[in-house]
Amino acid sequence: MPDTTTPASAAVSASLDSFFSPRSIAIVGASASAGKIGAIPLRYQLECGYQGKVYPINPARAEVQGVRAWPSLRGVEAPIDLAVFAVPSAQVDGALDDAIAAGVRNIVLFSAGYAEVGADGAAMQRRLADKARAAGIRLLGPNCLGFMNVAQDVYATFSPVVGAGKARAGSIAIVSQSGAFGAYAYALARERGLGLSWWATTGNEADIQVADCIAWLAADPATRVILAYLEGCRDGERLKAALALARAHGKPVVAVKVGRTGLGAAAAASHTASLAGDDAVYDALFRQYGVWRAHGIEEFFSIGYALSVGRLPPNDKLGLLTVSGGVGALMADDAADAGLDVAPMPEAAQRWLTERVPFAAPRNPVDVTGQVTSDPGLLEATAQRMLGDGGYGSLLVFLAAGGLSPSMAPVQTRMAAALRAAWPDRLIVFSTLSHAPLRAELDALGCPSFDEPGRAVRVVAALNHFRRHLGSGAAAPAPTPVLPALALARGTQNEADSMALLGAHGLPCVPCRAARDADAAVAAAEALGYPVALKVLSRDILHKSDIGGVALGLADAGAVRAACARLQDNLARHAPQAVREGFLVARMAARGGIECILGAHRDPVLGPVVMFGLGGVNVEVFQDVSFRLAPVDRAGALEMIGALRAAPLLCGHRGQPPADLDALADAIAALSRLAAAAGDSLESIDINPLLAYPAGAGALALDAVVTGTAATAGPAA
Amino acid sequence: MPDTTTPASAAVSASLDSFFSPRSIAIVGASASAGKIGAIPLRYQLECGYQGKVYPINPARAEVQGVRAWPSLRGVEAPIDLAVFAVPSAQVDGALDDAIAAGVRNIVLFSAGYAEVGADGAAMQRRLADKARAAGIRLLGPNCLGFMNVAQDVYATFSPVVGAGKARAGSIAIVSQSGAFGAYAYALARERGLGLSWWATTGNEADIQVADCIAWLAADPATRVILAYLEGCRDGERLKAALALARAHGKPVVAVKVGRTGLGAAAAASHTASLAGDDAVYDALFRQYGVWRAHGIEEFFSIGYALSVGRLPPNDKLGLLTVSGGVGALMADDAADAGLDVAPMPEAAQRWLTERVPFAAPRNPVDVTGQVTSDPGLLEATAQRMLGDGGYGSLLVFLAAGGLSPSMAPVQTRMAAALRAAWPDRLIVFSTLSHAPLRAELDALGCPSFDEPGRAVRVVAALNHFRRHLGSGAAAPAPTPVLPALALARGTQNEADSMALLGAHGLPCVPCRAARDADAAVAAAEALGYPVALKVLSRDILHKSDIGGVALGLADAGAVRAACARLQDNLARHAPQAVREGFLVARMAARGGIECILGAHRDPVLGPVVMFGLGGVNVEVFQDVSFRLAPVDRAGALEMIGALRAAPLLCGHRGQPPADLDALADAIAALSRLAAAAGDSLESIDINPLLAYPAGAGALALDAVVTGTAATAGPAA
């Protein structure tokens, strides 16, 4: 069911410090009966060493779990930063009134029975959220498992997963829309020894969304890495702002977003009350904001772990050091897939190694062979050469089962310590079977380790990604020029109006004019210069050639008149209902361009999006298109072009001249600015074809349709 | 360096039973000094409970490790099935003489210093292998870690990995070309509790190759699953025969093959002495023989484990049962990627569930929600409905961290037992965080379990793959008609000879004739009927239109004569050195066909291969081509066509008529038979274009080049 409780504003204004770092916590519905929802958060809170005040609220008892209790929030008579509502939904209204009266600032609402159960629940949730908002109270939930601030010993959750054992404190924050996933993720983190700073599930998101959590975590000093699990998004602008904030603070965000496929999206839609949006647009969002989209839960945690333990490598070059040539080749395969630079060792360093180990493979992967068992110093000496002479930003050392060997494990730790001391800025990753104590030692030395070499390679790729987006050398995203807002006219516009609008906004359009009748068409043709193309003009006809509505290469007035008659006939015959707006006369375009398509549309969640692809089968059969959130600058537009599998066709394929990529990029950027300015009034803009001429010869839009949203009130821009 | 020790014959004739199930084992170089290469296999052998005879061989001691020793193999005077050579390479020749004298049947040779160290070593290895072969002795190695027959307590290895702890006995066999990988794999199997039947590393493969091991394992009663690690292959025919044998015995083979990418292939080539071959052709081999090519080590073991514990599902339908809607959607994404059929539950079963749990998602994924904590029977009841009413061949149950919960873990075991009893033929997989005891219980019930739901989905896909190839319903591969062997003429043949050869072998070729001069060309044109195409004929000119060597649509004798003069001129001007063979006159093909390319070539390792793709950018830019080992039948050819990303273009794209797929498939099959018959005399055959006309209208080859290998002696076929 659709969620109608979303506040209109996208701004993340009020700080959530008092929420997530509360100095006092009241637990409404605090219970003494172990296992009850009201008992669990109180028990967690009492056991964890929290330094603030805790106020159990229970009308029937003076004491709960050995702590003084209050009958109502109103009775506490002290500041309450956070109230945890662990009561059935029927009691929530009353508790909220009490909270307002008591000046409570923030509420966690576990209770279910709201938007997730249907329209009545959604209405109830909306009333609740409105009332809280009016009172200046922030709300997490309803229908959530709450949150934990591990760094500050806050456990505002009733999830039994914490009772089964606490995850250790660390620098990874996890935020999950789904409670079940959140609990699973907590257990996974605990079992793998990952250190958590913070954890939350956002449930129905009546107020606080995943985006708000990310924005708060961006500035949380305990958090170095943000792991976010999304099923959808209620407010795209808020999410964009939060991701921008995380990037500005240099905090990597790793995301799992369900609904990559049609099947997954359908399942997610049936599950979550939030709008899905187009998954390809999420990909664009993540790419543009430097988020790493994890391919699965395993990768989600592997990368989170490596970010919390390791450092971002100073360059893209990856050195592969192995005791198995075969696994070296496997890692090289994975590195090639991940686009990493497996540059060869310098010649001198290669000679050094083959002098020491004649049958070593010295290039990269560097295979020191089984020789390491008889010459344990070989490994470290080779690694030093690789980091020194080779200059690799990342070093991945594969030691097979070495970590389980009582003789090899200490070699590994000593080596890690020596390399870390000599090369503090490098990413050093081990792939070896090992037990928890060795892993912990390597972690402490800033060297993540993995059983599986393929996973280690993928992690190196992710950390390079974050270096490019967040590292000291990363360029801050260039501010994209923004046009003043404009409102597109409602509905579909005819080709003449569409081309005029695009031309006025910097898109290279073929010179063309609207003409009411044959006389006007001839006049237009004379003004434009022969030969011309003639098309019927009607906002109702999208595929003009299908109804015989196009005539090309008309060389003189006679030909134009004849074509006018013919086209009018065809229109009358094949589309008698279509509104008639006369003709469009256009100068014939020069031959030789490559057909591209360029478009924009408004994603229901993430807003204006620009799309680019090559014409014909590339788009229709291979679905080879690039998306970006609008606006993009020229560099972003060039990246879009380069991301196409068909990009070689634009770069001088089979002796053809390379296309004018700058002109294409300028056209993409111009359309993206227009789309961004059109905002909510944008339904879609399609330019098809956009001809790409050889370098220096520009690009040219031959046909276009602009469609404003039906709801837009404004006149044509 | 190339390996020249491969025996020419591909037949796997002699049984390896006495090798891998020896009744007696001699250890040459048996030592008492712990840690020495000669001490380790004896220690393993003595400790493991082996029932056969063990003969330590040591010229200096009457007793080694508390067991009577013999000074030489000659002194044993009892049958020796297997001799393990744990001596430096300098002593190997003498030991081999002793072995021959003593009638030893099989030898494991650990020693290094052979083909892997250069030409001298390769020559030494060749002499050794020849001598052993002449004496009827089979050889594993040199430069290998040996083998273990876990089921029969044979430990003919010196790898320290076994000393660190033995893997439990089970039904998984591992064969690895690489020793380092083999040791790593053994440790991984042990750490994960996988049960092994057998393990071997083949090293330099002077005699026994990975293929021979697979062939033996095909009939080994202890082995249910074969995991094979390949870096290359010395004998493609042997590998094909072994894989066919494994399939005939219904044994799944999971393979890791390095060198997927150029980078990985280069690393593998520098590491292994075996020929690489084209990786795409390995893909074809694996596909055709029903091998699952694992994407990494993790998947290699996950699938091996699931095959050893679970069963092959009776149908492709996958039911997803989850306690988290979000993870349900994630699994649906993964299932869609894997091409699984996530069919919805029947309506009645959906109603049943929503009556019981109003807010459940009943379709598929089936989300029973957190309700399971208060209603533990819900999970099993839903699963029963899914297997019963839903008829799902596979059921994947996601329980988050449930396996770690003292209350939920027993629910899970009870459920597994009940489902197994009620549905013995289904594949039931759990994804839950759990500890080893729960996993072992689920394993014992035939239900594999995984931490990560994505991995579980991938495993279900693999087991469905094996059902299709090996299951009771799997069709035995149809015998492909084989032509009598034929020898192609050496070198490149001109278009006329090429077309004639193809036409004679059932390929639909445009009617055409060779003509020595203009008079003959006119005669040919009259015989074929106008209009005709004219081309210069020369085996030296592959791209005739580039030199102005093609004239199309010639309507009469005059046009033909004029074109002859023009083409001859062009040839003289642009390719004066080219051999002149006159002209080819061809009937003009009907318009409207889709351009395809069809080819064959001989892979240096795996032999004749057939290739199909669509013309133009599909092949050149998108590399969208299908390969299969030749021959293929019509069904295999249709599968090749369907595997193209561009396949929709042949199936009636944008209102065009669908192409004549049967005619295309017949052409592919015909060329594949010709390629198979040509065998070693085949260098390449290229048909470009092959026009695909609308269904019923056939296909037509317009141009072709046949090239025989330079070494071929025979006349033109």
UniProtKB/TrEMBL annotation, chains A, B:
Record key words, sorted: Ligase
Keyword Cell wall biogenesis/degradation recorded: no
Domain of life: Bacteria
Xref: InterPro entries: ATP_grasp_subdomain_1 (IPR013815), CoA-bd (IPR003781), Ligase_CoA_dom (IPR043938), NAD(P)-bd_dom_sf (IPR036291), Succ_CoA_lig_flav_dom (IPR032875), Succinyl-CoA_synth-like (IPR016102)
GO molecular function: ligase activity
Alphabetized Pfam families for the sequence: ATP-grasp_5 (PF13549), CoA_binding_2 (PF13380), Ligase_CoA_2 (PF19045), Succ_CoA_lig (PF13607)
Keyword Ligase recorded: yes
Domain CoA-binding: 19-114
Stretch forming the signal peptide: none
PANTHER family: BLL6376 PROTEIN (PTHR42793:SF4), COA BINDING DOMAIN CONTAINING PROTEIN (PTHR42793)
Name of the protein: 6-carboxyhexanoate--CoA ligase
Organism expressing this protein natively: Cupriavidus malaysiensis
